[in-house]
């Protein structure tokens, strides 16, 4: 059966509530603006959490906006820069599924349409309210005959559309859950990249911290092979909040603890340590999913670089006590996870790369013995895989090969690459 993806706009496709942003534009010269901003935000949250009817919330918000067409132009420019990161990086998905994606929102077409059209979403698949204007272009109301202006409007609209197929809903608010409650959609995914409403999370079939997660669990094509929200990033010790926020903003699953607790050892994928923190060999050996360690200080005496190298764990540290490294160390960790960069690593061959479009990047870490690259390329040749670019860097113990290949390939290739003798770690980056 055909699949349909019903996607909300405010705080889902974009990082913000558009009417809240419109108020900040239109009321910037109003002496009571802060009080009105708070009023609008409270009305938005009350509707999104199901504490106030949507129509009542919408009517009151539009009434106090004092906005016009010029304000809307400024809003569109702002919203285009505030598309949620995981939607932005999966633009190809929308272009490849133009008939399957519907934007359904209680917001307004005047600002939604110009933001989503560049993603390949069809104009006829955008369902939202529309403003009413006076002769001077001032917003004076909205079309109250539109079902999306009513309480339960998304349910009423979907009944009218009579879509036949598997329907999935993605959103952050009560109106999105109502689709599931009505029985019109198969699953409701609570989207939490921008905001998490507890009353909605409890009702969702699945909590999806990013669009990558939604695509991953439904085995759909995506920009990255593994959602970053599934990578456990453990922060240990007195690490500055500035460092933590860099990793949190990049979408990793963050845990901040005073010690490297045993329960996190088997699952940790990234480890950021404050100066003075140590990691015993026994614990490091058990961290089989660990890909990179960042250390805010000189790590030479704090854990075994030799063991980390043997396990294919890339280390970034700060031997010179540079104050800028509270930012650069977590960023280097992110760059390794996101692009495969090992630039300024303390234990790996240094490699710095740009991202290649319309390709999959495969990372192969192995012991530095003769013939590995030949074996890797023979596997690609056996499966008629087109290599777009390839990089090999070595030191006395480690070889590190990054290969960008065309997106169409037999998944058997991955199994064969992992099984090459002397392989330490292998992963698909994106």
TrEMBL record:
Top-rank lineage group of the source organism: Bacteria
InterPro entries hit by this protein: ACT-like_dom_sf, ACT_dom, AHAS_small-like_ACT, HAD-like_SerB, HAD-like_sf, HAD_sf
Catalytic activity, EC: 3.1.3.3
Cofactor(s) named in the record: Mg(2+)
Reaction(s) catalysed (UniProt annotation): O-phospho-L-serine + H2O = L-serine + phosphate; O-phospho-D-serine + H2O = D-serine + phosphate
EC class of the enzyme, as a word: hydrolase
Pfam families: ACT_AHAS_ss (PF22629)
Record key words, sorted: Amino-acid biosynthesis, Hydrolase, Magnesium, Metal-binding, Serine biosynthesis
Entry keyword annotation includes Disulfide bond: no
Residue ranges constituting the ACT domain according to the UniProt record: 361-430
Pathway where it operates: Amino-acid biosynthesis; L-serine biosynthesis; L-serine from 3-phospho-D-glycerate: step 3/3
PANTHER family in UniProt: PHOSPHOSERINE PHOSPHATASE
Protein's name in the database: phosphoserine phosphatase
Organism: Paradesertivirga mongoliensis
